[in-house]
Amino acid sequence: MSPAKASGQDPVVIELREQTRWLRLLGLQTMKPLIAAMTDPSERLAYELSYGERSSRQIAQLVARSQTKVVRWWSSWCATGIASDTGGGRARRLVSLRDLGIDVPEKRGLDAGLANGVSEAAVNGQ
């Protein structure tokens, strides 16, 4: 009996899931060098914090860089495909650095962000 019949699933769905697993593997292998090229710890932290909910101003405060710098990073990441534009003037990373086994710097701007009116819940992604 075939795996599709044994599981009761459509063979096309099983094949698509298998292809998706392979594409994810290939994509992660391609992405890792792009992320590794981020030598500035602030850029890595900004990437990790860019999951579509924070503004460039909030991220700039958290990583102690200018808002212009964050917007430039977002543009670069979107151009290379490691992030996407959410349509609301924000960027969403493709994958967490932690998921790639890459260390994420501490939130250096946490105290500055709180002092400048960014709530602790916003800093922690809540």
List keywords for this structure.
two-stranded antiparallel sheet, disordered C terminus, single chain, elongated, Arc Repressor Mutant, subunit A, 126 residues, 2 strands, 57% helix
Question: What can be said about this structure in brief?
Answer:
The chain has 126 residues and is mainly α. 57% of the residues lie in helices and 5% in strands.
Tell me about this structure:
- The protein folds into two domains: 37 residues; 87 residues, Arc Repressor Mutant, subunit A.
- It is built from seven helices and two strands.
- Strands 1-2 form a two-stranded antiparallel sheet.
- A hairpin with a 5-residue loop joins strand 1 and strand 2.
- The longest helix has 26 residues.
- It is mainly α.
- The C terminus is likely disordered.
SSE diagram, text form:
Layout: H1 3-7, H2 11-36, H3 41-49, H4 56-63, H5 67-80, E1 83-85, E2 91-93, H6 110-115, H7 120-123
Antiparallel strand pairs: 1-2
Helix pairs in contact: 3-4, 4-5
SSE order, as H and E?
HHHHHEEHH
| Backbone shape | elongated
State the domain count: 2
Number of DSSP-assigned strands: 2
Helical residues, percent: 55-70%
Query: Mean pLDDT, as a whole number?
Result: 82
